[in-house]
Amino acid sequence: MANQVSNGGNHVSTKPPPEPSPLRKAKFFQANMRILVTGGAGFIGSHLVDKLMQNEKNEVIVVDNYFTGSKDNLKQWIGHPRFELIRHDVTETLLVEVDQIYHLACPASPIFYKYNPVKTIKTNVIGTLNMLGLAKRVGARILLTSTSEVYGDPLVHPQTEDYWGNVNPIGVRSCYDEGKRVAETLMFDYHRQHGIEIRIARIFNTYGPRMNIDDGRVVSNFIAQAIRDEPLTVQLPGTQTRSFCYVSDMVDGLIRLMEGNNTGPINIGNPGEFTMTELAETVKEMINPNVKIITVDNTPDDPRQRKPNITKANELLGWEPKIKLRDGIPLMEEDFRKRLEIPRKK
Ligand SMILES: NC(=O)c1ccc[n+]([C@@H]2O[C@H](COP(=O)([O-])OP(=O)(O)OC[C@H]3O[C@@H](n4cnc5c(N)ncnc54)[C@H](O)[C@@H]3O)[C@@H](O)[C@H]2O)c1
């Protein structure tokens, strides 16, 4: 673990990581890298699975409870000899022999994580504890997909990883924000106390094909509204900003983080910053110039600004996003039109 870069303080574990299964070192045991993806039937998870499956040396096991994910996202892999899909809730224990764990299981959209906030907290806390217990038992490296929400309504802009955040602990979003903060704490405690090899990605808004169409996230909202000829609803004041990372860039960043030597946390996101009004205007121009843009009330605790500082990802992982918003929107439009069965007007 000595070569692990951590982020200040006494975060480096003094313990050696747990031993992987002895079979891994056996002379005649030919094994692929066995990779567990929790939440692999979801939006980012299914794209991650696609990428991992491209490597013939990988065997991929997905566990998902299908709360917000769908088997449809993985249909091209079902039946493949290097792929397994298990219906499982991460709040229950799981025993599988794996080398790496990408722990994504958690609803990411406010509509879904607020639907059952107690369950969201359980998924973040008990689910992460279970996956860390598994990592400890089988000697696997584990990556947590944390979130920019750990910065809350940030008082520092753009957000660097050493910023501790400005989070409301008792608000309607806290089940997600605080849940992820505890999940990060658990990751570092297992790392320091048990020598588990950990990786933490702080993901900023990500978009692309396979997002749930009516999940209330702003890019999917605007694109679905433009396709359906409905007004684009900008939450007031409209000057709040977000940055949007295309999903293939995100997957590339997650794999680099897993394969590299840095525990993180590392921000992965696109620093291109847009106000919600600008985003609505771009979607209108590109998809349906005839739709109206209207304003609606905002939801509580909506952060005013979000923009990652990605210096660390750049320097430590050699990563930067490649896909510009204007190139990503048409790819998502195509996927949404197919699923909504609304072809482009001639
Ligand atoms: N999409 C983003 O912009 C974004 C931003 C920040 C962080 N993240 C994080 O990335 C991860 C993936 O996000 P996503 O956008 O793909 O979300 P998603 O909702 O599409 O995927 C989450 C998956 O986890 C599954 N899941 C939820 N609870 C579970 C449980 N208890 N047991 C087993 N499976 C469970 C869902 O069914 C779904 O397939 C999440 O951890 C999320 O917090 C996403």
Topology (elements, then pairings):
Layout: E1 33-38, H1 43-53, E2 58-64, E3 83-87, E4 100-103, H2 110-115, H3 117-138, E5 141-147, H4 174-194, E6 198-203, E7 206-207, H5 218-227, E8 232-235, E9 241-243, E10 245-246, H6 247-259, E11 266-268, E12 273-275, H7 276-287, E13 293-296, H8 311-317, H9 325-340
Bound molecules: nicotinamide-adenine-dinucleotide.
Task: Walk me through what this model shows.
The chain is α/β, with parallel strands linked by helices and about 350 residues long. The chain has a domain at about 20-205 and about 245-270: Rossmann fold (3-Layer(aba) Sandwich), CATH 3.40.50.720. Helix content is about 35%, strand content about 15%. It has helices spanning about 45-55, 110-115, 115-140, 175-195, 220-225, 245-260, 275-285, 310-315, 325-340, and strands at about 35-40, 60-65, 85, 100-105, 140-145, 200-205, 205, 230-235, 240-245, 245, 265-270, 275, 295. The strands form 4 sheets. A 7-stranded parallel beta sheet has the order 3-2-1-4-5-6-11, with helices on both faces. Strands 7-10 form a two-stranded parallel ribbon. The radius of gyration is 20 Å and the shape is globular. The chain binds nicotinamide-adenine-dinucleotide. Nicotinamide-adenine-dinucleotide binds near residues 67, 106, 108 and 147.
